[in-house]
Amino acid sequence: MAVNNDEKEQIKPIGHNELAHKSLLQSDALYQYILETSVFPREHPCLKELREMTEKHPRNLMATPADEGQLLSMLIKLINAKNTLEIGVFTGYSLLSTALALPSDGKVLALDVSRENYELGLPIIEKSGVANKIDFREGQALPLLDELLQNENNKGIFDFVFVDADKDNYLNYHKRVLDLVKIGGLIGYDNTLWCGSVAAPPDAPMMDYVKRLRGYVIELNKYLAQDSRIEICQLPVGDGITLCRRIS
Ligand code: SAM
Ligand code: CA
């Protein structure tokens, strides 16, 4: 069947750059507008320093963008979170956003398989005056979560959980995190739009890591949509964040 020019335009394959793009908005200019108008003017100076330090890191694409850090901060304050968990720290942008948003007696338990990148950000976190709220534990997150769950007293202790680590384990994290967050508490699963690849044809050109993990993110999204223990809201902020409120 012949394809006319208009149709060709609509089915044009998604380019490499589009799938590796940091924002899902329609243009870079619009994203820049949000950052410059609403985000950067209110960004804590230590968050700014941490962001600028992380920009020089070869894996800087892993960092939570500043607009998403602002969202996390807003959510933590709205739900009056006091005790939170983060899985996947890297240099600590989301962790510092969290620690700054928590009340002075708040705590965040932060898990990452590697301490090395956390230590790059640590001097800045210490300068910010909120390092006392952070309990960083190095190791694979799954066994650390299982260890927490061995103690019945840890069930339902977290008000907020931010999951931003290995995407192929998100469903394994979900099983455990649901027991650790309180009923009425909130979980944020990050990167649930996976550079837009979740809606792209499987043969669309995409970075190798995007292609390798895309199926896991699609499975997670399907699973969360039918899980009656939670209410969900998937937001196109950053690379997509799915908020889950535990209801049972
Ligand atoms: N939230 C971070 C931020 O704001 O910059 C970004 C986290 S980065 C996308 C993912 C992190 O998950 C990396 O630091 C990596 O070491 C960690 N990670 C990957 N697999 C892990 C695992 N199995 N257990 C714990 N941490 C893991
Ligand atoms: Ca992320």
UniProtKB/TrEMBL annotation:
The keyword Iron does not apply. One of its GO terms (biological process) is methylation. InterPro entries: Cation-dep_OMT, SAM-dependent_MTases_sf, SAM_O-MeTrfase. This is Caffeoyl-CoA O-methyltransferase 1. PROSITE patterns: SAM_OMT_I (PS51682). PANTHER family: CAFFEOYL-COA 3-O-METHYLTRANSFERASE (PTHR10509:SF63), O-METHYLTRANSFERASE-RELATED (PTHR10509). CDD domains: AdoMet_MTases. It holds the Pfam family Methyltransf_3. Belongs to the class I-like SAM-binding methyltransferase superfamily. Cation-dependent O-methyltransferase family. Methylates caffeoyl-CoA to feruloyl-CoA and 5-hydroxyferuloyl-CoA to sinapoyl-CoA. Plays a role in the synthesis of feruloylated polysaccharides. Involved in the reinforcement of the plant cell wall. Also involved in the responding to wounding or pathogen challenge by the increased formation of cell wall-bound ferulic acid polymers. It comes from Pisum sativum. GO terms for molecular function: metal ion binding; O-methyltransferase activity; S-adenosylmethionine-dependent methyltransferase activity. Keywords: Metal-binding, Methyltransferase, S-adenosyl-L-methionine, Transferase. The keyword Nucleotide-binding does not apply.
